[in-house]
Amino acid sequence: MRISTPTAAVNAIGQLNISGNVIPATWWGNIRLSSGKPDSTAIVLLSEIVYWYRPAEVRDEHTGELKGSRKRFHGDKLQRSYQSFADQFGFSKREATDALKRLRDAGLITLELRTVITAEGLALSNILFIEVIPDAIKAITHPSVKISSGDKNVTPITLQRNSPYVETEPLLRSDVTPPTLKSETYTETTTEITTEIKNKTPLPPTGGDEGSSLQSKKNKTA
To answer: Is the whole-model pTM more than 0.85?
Structure first.
């Protein structure tokens, strides 16, 4: 058998329609804890967030012609709760929360708390919305590629211990389908000064630990 000839196992795997999250190999070297080990929790959560921000193809159902692309989530940003990430990947809520805040502090994502109004007029407070920062994601994914903003180059991230905090939030279960807002209201309190913003915004259309603060050679975006 030639070295390039696929084996039976290779052919069988090639017939599987595998989709979902992708973790670039460079992330394991660029997102690290203070011990020097990769921050696997933050890496897994970032891959999930980036998945939702990858455009989905829109094709003609009869011809298969590519017509364009669309976003995967409803609204202007991805809406998820800390608990939904914990449930999906088997982390504790504390682990998921800390990892997301490390990503925020590294300038890779933004976390925004909003008050949303349902169609019935019910106000839901402290709903978490997440957005990626494309230049920062590009910098850790393709370190040799110079990004548009010269001061946003991302070097391997070092993490330190978070300050203690206390949170209260009802469990919000989120499946892998586009997240939708639940009817519960939940609150978050912390002893650290966060940059999460409380806004008022209309409800989007229906449908959907070793850690701490990150340091990077770039501006922090909240």
So the answer is: no
